[in-house]
C-alpha cells in the first residue's frame, strides 16, 4: 500500500497565499488526527470485556469459553505487535496503521455477526487482537513522532512518549461503558453494542488519512535519488553512495537500541501494566455480581470505565513524579497495584461490589503510573529508526498480563480466588521492592537514572 505524502518545509505552505501560521497549526494537529486511531484500538479491546456477562446470560456460553475468548485477543495481539512494529519501521507508520485500522473494523463486524452464529466470535476476537497490535505498534510511534519537532515545533518529547497511552486509555474507558449501557437497554445487545465502534473507526480512518508520514524508509530515499539523477552517471553513483550510507546509518541505529535499559527497567514491569486492569474489569465483576441481578452488565461496564479512567486521572501526578526520579512512576504503579489487589481479597471473599469498585479504581491508578513509565522508558531505549519495533516489544510484554484472568480461572479449581489475589498482591509487592532497590543502587548505569526525554519548560 503506497500513499503519497506531500512534504512542505516547516513554517511554509503549499501555496503562496497560505501563511506559515496555518501550516504550523496543521502540523500541531497531526498527533490529534492519529490519536483517534489509538482510541479506536482501546475501544475495540474493552467493548468485548464489558459484555462477558451478557455473553454468558444471553448466548449461554460457559465461563471458560467466555474467558478463553477474552484471552484470544492477546493471542492475536502478540503477532500483530511483533510484525507491525518492524514493518512500520521499514515501510512507514502511515500504511501499516491505516491498514490495521481497516482490519479492526472488519473484526468488529465479525463480532456483530457472532450474535447470530457464535462461531464468528473466534475470528472476530482474533482479528481484533491482530489489528489492535499493529495499531499499537505503528500508531504509538506515529503519534509520538507527530508530537515532536519538526511536526510539532513546541512539542515536549516526554509528553510525546506518554500521549499514545492516554489515547488508548480513553478508548479503554469509554468503549466498555458505552457497550455495557447499550447492551443493558437496547434491543439485540450483542450486535448493537458494537455499532459505536464501527462509527468511531470509520471517522478515525478518514481523519488519520490526512496526517503526514513521519518515517520514510532509507531504501525509498535511495531509489528516489537515483530516479532523480536520471542518466547522469556521476549523480547515480552519488545516489548509490547515499543509499549505502543510509543503510550504514540504519545498522548503527540498530546497535543504538539500549537493550540493557529495556531488560532492566521495562520487562519486569510490563506484564503488570495490563494484569492489573484485567483483574479489575474482567475478574472482579464476576466475583461480586451475585446480588446484582439485572444489573450485572452495567456493573461490568462501570468497572471497565473506572479502571482506565483512574489511569487517566493520575497522569498529571505521573508527570510530576517522573520529573523527580526515574523510577518513581514504576514504584507508584506497583505500589498501587499491590494495594488494589489487597483490597480485592476481601471484596471477593465477601462479594462486595462497592469494595470491588474501589479495588478496581486503585488498580486503574497503578495501571496509569505503570503505563506512563513503560512508554517513556521504551521510547528512551530506542533510536528513531527502531522506535516502532521497541514500542511493539513493550506492548507485547504488557499485554501478556491480559492472560492473568484466564490463568486465575484455571487455577481457581484448586485454590480459592481470594487466596490467588492475595498471592498476586505479594508478587506485586516483591516486584515493587525490586524497583525500589534498582532505583537506589549506586552502581546502576547513569542512563537508567537519567530522564532521557525530559519535558521542556513551556513558555
From TrEMBL:
It is found in: Cell membrane. Keywords: Cell membrane, Membrane, Transmembrane, Transmembrane helix, Transport. The chain crosses the membrane at residues 67-84, 96-120, 126-143, 164-185, 191-211, 269-288, 294-315, 327-348, 354-375, 387-408, 414-438. This is MFS transporter. Residues 1-26 are annotated as: Disordered. The keyword Cytoplasm does not apply. It comes from Streptomyces aureoversilis. It is a multi-pass membrane protein. Signal peptide: none annotated. Its main location: membrane. InterPro entries: MFS (IPR011701), MFS_trans_sf (IPR036259), MFS_Transporters (IPR050171).
Amino acid at each position: 500500500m503506497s500513499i503519497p505524502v506531500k512534504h512542505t518545509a516547516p513554517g511554509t505552505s503549499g501555496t503562496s497565499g497560505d501563511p506559515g501560521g496555518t501550516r504550523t497549526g496543521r502540523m500541531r494537529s497531526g498527533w490529534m488526527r492519529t490519536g483517534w486511531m489509538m482510541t479506536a484500538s482501546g475501544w475495540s479491546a474493552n467493548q468485548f470485556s464489558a459484555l462477558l456477562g451478557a455473553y454468558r446470560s444471553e448466548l449461554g456460553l460457559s465461563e471458560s469459553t467466555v474467558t478463553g475468548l477474552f484471552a484470544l485477543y492477546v493471542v492475536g495481539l502478540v503477532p500483530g505487535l511483533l510484525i507491525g512494529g518492524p514493518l512500520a519501521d521499514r515501510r512507514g507508520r502511515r500504511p501499516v496503521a491505516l491498514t490495521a485500522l481497516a482490519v479492526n473494523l472488519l473484526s468488529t463486524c465479525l463480532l456483530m455477526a457472532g450474535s447470530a452464529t457464535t462461531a464468528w466470535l473466534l475470528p472476530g476476537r482474533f482479528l481484533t487482537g491482530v489489528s489492535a497490535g499493529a495499531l499499537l505498534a505503528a500508531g504509538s510511534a506515529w503519534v509520538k513522532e507527530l508530537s515532536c519537532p519538526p511536526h510539532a515545533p513546541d512539542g515536549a518529547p516526554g509528553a510525546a512518549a506518554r500521549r499514545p497511552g492516554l489515547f488508548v486509555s480513553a478508548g479503554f474507558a469509554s468503549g466498555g461503558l458505552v457497550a455495557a449501557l447499550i447492551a443493558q437497554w437496547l434491543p439485540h445487545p450483542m450486535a448493537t453494542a458494537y455499532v459505536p465502534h464501527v462509527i468511531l473507526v470509520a471517522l478515525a480512518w478518514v481523519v488519520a488519512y490526512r496526517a503526514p508520514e513521519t518515517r520514510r524508509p532509507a531504501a525509498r530515499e535511495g531509489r528516489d535519488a537515483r530516479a532523480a539523477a536520471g542518466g547522469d552517471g556521476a549523480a547515480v553513483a552519488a545516489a548509490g553512495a547515499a543509499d549505502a550510507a543510509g543503510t550504514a546509518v540504519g545498522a548503527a541505529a540498530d546497535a543504538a537500541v539500549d537493550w540493557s535499559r529495556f531488560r532492566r527497567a521495562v520487562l519486569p514491569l510490563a506484564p503488570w501494566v495490563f494484569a492489573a486492569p484485567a483483574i479489575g474489569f474482567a475478574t472482579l465483576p464476576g466475583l461480586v455480581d451475585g446480588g446484582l441481578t439485572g444489573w450485572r452488565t452495567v456493573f461490568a461496564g462501570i468497572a471497565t470505565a473506572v479502571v482506565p479512567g483512574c489511569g487517566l486521572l493520575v497522569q498529571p501526578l505521573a508527570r510530576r513524579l517522573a520529573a523527580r526520579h526515574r523510577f518513581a512512576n514504576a514504584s507508584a504503579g506497583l505500589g498501587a497495584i499491590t494495594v488494589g489487589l489487597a483490597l480485592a481479597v476481601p471484596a471477593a471473599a465477601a462479594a462486595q461490589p462497592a469494595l470491588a469498585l474501589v479495588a478496581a479504581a486503585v488498580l486503574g491508578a497503578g495501571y496509569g503510573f505503570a503505563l506512563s513509565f513503560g512508554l517513556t522508558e521504551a521510547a528512551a531505549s530506542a533510536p528513531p529508526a527502531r522506535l516502532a519495533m521497541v514500542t511493539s516489544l513493550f506492548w507485547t510484554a504488557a499485554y501478556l498480563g491480559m492472560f492473568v484472568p484466564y490463568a486465575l480461572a484455571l487455577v481457581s479449581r484448586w485454590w480459592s480466588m481470594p487466596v490467588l489475589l492475595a498471592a498476586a498482591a505479594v508478587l506485586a509487592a516483591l516486584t515493587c521492592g525490586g524497583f525500589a532497590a534498582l532505583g537506589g543502587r549506586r552502581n546502576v548505569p547513569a542512563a537508567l537514572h537519567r530522564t532521557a526525554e525530559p519535558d521542556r519548560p513551556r513558555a
